[in-house]
Amino acid sequence: MTEPLVRVQNLVREYTLPREKLFQPPGKVHALNDVSFTIEAGRSLGIVGESGSGKSTLARLVMALDTPTSGSVTMLGRDLHRLPREELRKARRDFQMVFQDPYGSLDPRQTIERIVTEPLAAQGGLTRADMRKQAEDVLDSVGLRRNDLGKYPHEFSGGQRQRIAIARALITRPRLIVADEPVSALDVSVQAQVLNLMQDLQTEFGITYMLISHDLAVVHHLCHDVAVLWQGRIVEQGPPQRLFTDAQHEYTRTLVAAVPNPEPPSVPAEPLAARTVEP
Ligand code: ADP
Ligand code: MG
After folding, report:
1. DSSP class of residue 273?
2. Element of type H or E holding 74
């Protein structure tokens, strides 16, 4: 039996709002409501939904950057939110994140070498020279130059900064990369370049993505399945081709209608053979 890469079960996240009146109970936002899905290794999942539908909340919970109100996230058989701190720190090698804003997510005071090697430094056990070598390799993989290591984020364009963020995510050789709106802040011409890079890395390194976007057109290139999130619930899930041709939920039809070019979407690359997980 192969464990799925990720199993999300009955995930709920409520936020308590600041109390408006002293004698009234504080308000609550149900950001996620009973969300369940699995991601098999090699089958990237797109999460699509409008602003406020709970996408970033879901990303933070899957990355164990936030705690669910109830429900669980199991990664390769380990319940992430119940792992002891030290175990969780080690487990982070297998899953990394790319954030939406390539300006805000890179510390402007740190060199590219520092930024890109940060996940390795957090794992510990490597010398600076080892980490530098690995940083050079990942910069090659994302189409940047080795002598970029000594530079600072402001010396790069938006698309290049997102390549740096992808290099940082890639450096621990993760199984899963969660990318939360990775191209939304970029010019349309640059978006395609970054998505093509992500597609190449998917094939080259066997990366599985959980790719979040408000735009169905962005996810269909990279993802084998798409889950449509609406008001904190998954209302529809399936291969992108099926959603394009036979959407069941009204909100999905709105998303399909928003894709400008109605030509039939290309079929994403064949899923990679699922790797066996050691017990
Ligand atoms: P998306 O990424 O799809 O735009 P989010 O996950 O950011 O959606 O937000 C989902 C809902 O939860 C929204 O209604 C948002 O206002 C609310 N929310 C998100 N984070 C917080 C927070 N820290 N405190 C209170 N409400 C929040
Ligand atoms: Mg968001």
Report:
1. P
2. strand 70-75
CA distance 117 to 112: 8
Protein residue closest via CA to atom 11 of ligand 1 = 31
Ligand 1 contact via 15 beta carbon (within 6 Å): yes
DSSP 266: P
Ranges of the chain whose pLDDT falls below 70: 1, 261-279
Task: Note the pTM of the prediction, 2 decimals.
Answer: 0.91
Q: Is 16 in the pocket of ligand 1 (CB under 6 A)?
A: no
Task: Report yes or no: 112 and 101 within 8 Å, Cβ to Cβ.
Answer: no
pLDDT at 101 (0 to 100):
82
Q: 84: which 2 tokens?
A: 């002891």
Question: 209, 220, 214, 122: which is closest to 171 by C-alpha?
Answer: 122
DSSP H or E run through 133: helix 128-141
Q: Which two tokens stand for residue 55?
A: 């996408």
Rounded distance between C-alpha atoms, residue 244 and residue 266, angstroms: 11
CA separation for the pair 235, 50 (Å, rounded):
13
Q: Which of 15, 50, 251 to mutate to test the pocket of ligand 1 (most atoms within 8 A of CB)?
A: 15
What are 237's two structure tokens? 């899930």
CA 14 – CA 252 distance, rounded (Å): 24
Q: Encode pLDDT of 21-68 as tens digits.
A: 788 888 899 999 999 999 999 999 999 999 999 999 999 999 999 999
How many CB atoms are closer than 10 A to CB 259?
Answer: 15
Nearest to 117 by CA among 97, 134, 102, 94: 134
